[in-house]
User: Fold Dicarboxylate/amino acid:cation symporter from Methylobacterium terrae.
Amino acid sequence: MQHATPSAAAPGSSQPWYKVLYIQVLIAIALGVLLGYVAPDTAKAMKWLGDAFIALIKMMIAPIIFCTIVHGIASIGDLKKVGRVGLKALIYFEVVSSLALVIGVVVGEIVQPGAGFGVDPAKLDAKAVAGYASKAQADSTIAHIMAIIPKSYFDAFAGGDLLQILLIAVLTGVVITGLGERGKPAIHAIEAAGEIFFRIIGMIVKLAPIGAFGAMAYTIGEYGIGKLGNLAGLVATFYLTSLLFVLVVLGLIARFSGFSIIKFLAYIKDELLIVLGTSSSETVLPHMMQKMKRLGASDSVVGLVIPTGYSFNLDGTNIYMTLATLFLAQAVGADLSFGQYATIIAVAMLTSKGASGVTGAGFVTLAATLGAIPGNPVPVAAMALILGIDKFMSECRALTNLVGNGVACVVVSRWEGELDPVKLREVMANPLAIGTEIADEKPVPVAP
Assistant:
């Protein structure tokens, strides 16, 4: 499933600034913050704009992921290679995700963002987080496994669950591959359907500034900038830790893979700003896949790594899980043992797999992690301390997750020997211009 790729554009030949998507999104975010601060009640009424944009994107994710994965597997024609790519991706995900969890623990111990709060656990309002706690109780290993299996083949599309879509797409791709020549008509049909869905996404993404405005206005109007002041230390620690993780850890990985993390961030700036405005990395999943292909990653690797990474490679969520757990432990005066630290990391590794970039999912997985610590040293009710700022934390989680998945896609492509060095050099030579071109133009189908 290929799309025409734009050539590098000279900065002087770009379209007027007010027509550039990332500038429109930036302006929309600023206006949303301003409205939320000046007129909170009016800003809260703008929530539906952000919800509508996210809903429009999410309605297209299932068919796009299905078509991309099925076409990618069928195009490979070698099931051993499919398994090899998947295994490499999972190994990478687990190594980097574990590193993110450990970094959260280390930073939490060094900075001690919760020290001095002196909170009495008995006086915490458990009702405020009761909904999250009840969801977390059902979040067991067996529940995770069973949730992957849809009620029917088409129920996965209706529900839009990424893991369910992955399952049926992989099964369909494997079967079509096994059909050989008889499966080629199905491949062409799926490719054509994919082109249609990508064109629809191209139209919807133009509404990103409106969605970002509505979501940001509601966030500031509902929660207020003032709430950041009380827990500014935790918010700042989380953002700085995530930034260092991206620049240092992912930066070193990127450097060994032949590209600059700074230039990569410039290349996906449009997607980063949309995620900042909507607090959900799912809103840019289709566009991210297009950009990874333009960067030089093969169709088959992009189709397998990006969707899988949205459930299995959540670096930002992992940092948040351990850092927030330590913050709450320090706030209530809990002394954690080495065994409890190990449990936190192990449980967070499992529970984070379900937080696929959706706003609020990280809070549910945090509740599941707290409830699994031996001895229950940190009551789930302690989450009430950070309930007011979770919305501000979710942006950072989603942004870090997005960057991590983009880097993973390039790494696995290079690992598999399917990274086009010419395309990579071309994009990295002028990431701002090429990234803007791809974001602003509609995909044009070309002959496979």
